[in-house]
Amino acid sequence: MKFHVRTMTADDVAAGMHLKTTAGWNQTEADWHRFLASHPTGSFVAEFAGEVVGTVTTIAYGTRLAWIGMMLVDPAHRRQGIGESLMKAALEDLEKRDIRAIGLDATPMGRPLYERLGFRARSELNRWAWNRQASAIAPEPPSRTPGAIDLKSLLDQDSEVFGADRSALIRSFVETRPERFVVSSLGASRPDYGLTRPGTVADHIGAWVADEPTGAAAVLEALVGRSSAPRMIADVPSDHPFAGRLLHASGFRIARDLTRMYRGPWETPPLAGDVCAILGPEFG
Ligand SMILES: CC(C)(COP(=O)(O)OP(=O)(O)OC[C@H]1O[C@@H](n2cnc3c(N)ncnc32)[C@H](O)[C@@H]1OP(=O)(O)O)[C@@H](O)C(=O)NCCC(=O)NCCS
Questions:
Q1: Can you give the pTM of this predicted structure?
Q2: CA 241 – ligand 1 centroid, Å
Q3: Within this chain, do residues 243 and 150 fall inside the same structural domain, yes or no?
Q4: How many A from CA of 82 to the centre of ligand 1?
Q5: CA–CA separation, 199 and 196 (whole Å)
Q6: Are residues 152 and 16 both part of a single domain?
Q7: What is the arithmetic mean of pLDDT over 80-92?
Q8: Is 78 in the pocket of ligand 1 (CB under 6 A)?
Q9: Fewer CB within 10 A of the end CB, N or C, for the chain?
C-alpha cells in the first residue's frame, strides 16, 4: 500500500496536533485553523491506510510571499518520499496562485529536502528558551482590553520589516489576546513592538521588533512580565547585534538552530535589521 497526498481540512487538525506533539512542537489548534483560514485548499496531508501520517501548511501574504510550515512526517513513515510529495503539492498550489517568493525556516532534518526543491539558505536563526521557576507559573490571566495603540501604522511598519503584508495574521493574534501585544515609544526612530503567542509547551515571543537596545529591552521585559507560562521561546537572527545579548541577560539560552530559506525572487526588506525575533518558523 502507498500513501497519498490530499488537501487538509479542519477534520485533520487533531491528527496534525498529534504529529506536532510527537515532534515536541508548540502549535495550538488555533494555529492550524489560521493556515486553513488563510487559504482553505493551501495545506496538505499525506494519508496511509486511512491515517494521516504527514502534514504541510502554507500561508500567503498577498502574492509577494508565502510561508511553508508544519512539515511533519510520522517517524514510522519517514524516508519514503512523503515529505517530498507534501512539499511538491504545496509548491504546485502556490505556483498556481502566482506567489512570487516562498520562504520557510528549516530544521537540520528538513534542510536537505528543501535544497533539493530549489530553496536557498539566507540566514540562520537561534531558538532561545527559558524555563520559568515553578513557583512563578500561573494560569493565563483573563484577557484585558488594550490601551490606545495605533495598530494600523504599526502594521504598516511591520510590512516594511517583514517585506510583505502579514497584518491580518498579526491582527488575529492581537485581537485574541491584546494584553500580549506590547508597544514602546523608546525606539530611536520608530515605535518598538512585540507579542507573545500561546503554545502548547511555551509562550512564543515574536514578532519582536526594535531599532535599538533600550526599547527592545523594554518590550522584552514587558512580554516576559505578562506571561506566566512554564517556558518561553524566541527565534532570533543569529547575527542580530543585541537581541541575543538581551535574552541571555534575562536567563534565556540557545536551544537549537534553524535556517531561513527562500525560493524565488526575494529581496531583503528595508527594515529587516529591526527584527529581534521572527513571528515564528511556521508563519515567517
Ligand atoms: C523532515 C521530514 C519532514 C522529512 O520527511 P520524509 O517523509 O522523511 O522526507 P522524504 O522521505 O521525502 O526525504 C527524506 C530522505 O529520505 C530519502 N528517501 C525518500 N524516499 C526514499 C525511499 N523510498 N527509500 C530510501 N530513502 C528515501 C530522501 O532521498 C531523503 O534523503 P536525505 O536524507 O538525503 O534528505 C521528517 O524527517 C520530519 O518530520 N522530521 C521532524 C520534523 C522536522 O524537522 N520537519 C522539518 C521542518 S523544517
A1: 0.95
A2: 34
A3: yes
A4: 7
A5: 9
A6: no
A7: 98
A8: yes
A9: N
Mutation to probe ligand 1, out of 19, 25, 74, 84 (largest number of atoms < 8 A from CB): 84
CA distances to 50, 52, 108, 197, 247 from 124, in Å: 38, 31, 11, 22, 17
* CA distances to 4, 45, 191, 239, 257 from 11, in Å: 17, 11, 41, 41, 32
Place 52 in a pLDDT band, splitting at 50, 70 and 90: very high
- 109 touches ligand 1 (CB under 6 Å): yes
Residue-range definition of the domain harbouring residue 54? 4-99
Structurally, how many domains does the chain consist of? Answer: 2
pLDDT higher than threshold 90 for residue 138: no
Give the domain CATH number at 82. 3.40.630.30
Q: Are 85 and 136 contained in the same domain?
A: no
Mean pLDDT across the stretch 147-163?
A: 87
Cα–Cα distance, 206 to 234 (Å, whole number): 6
**pLDDT averaged over every residue in the chain:** 94
pLDDT in tens, 106-135: 999 999 999 999 999 999 999 999 999 877
**Confidence (pLDDT) at 143:** 47
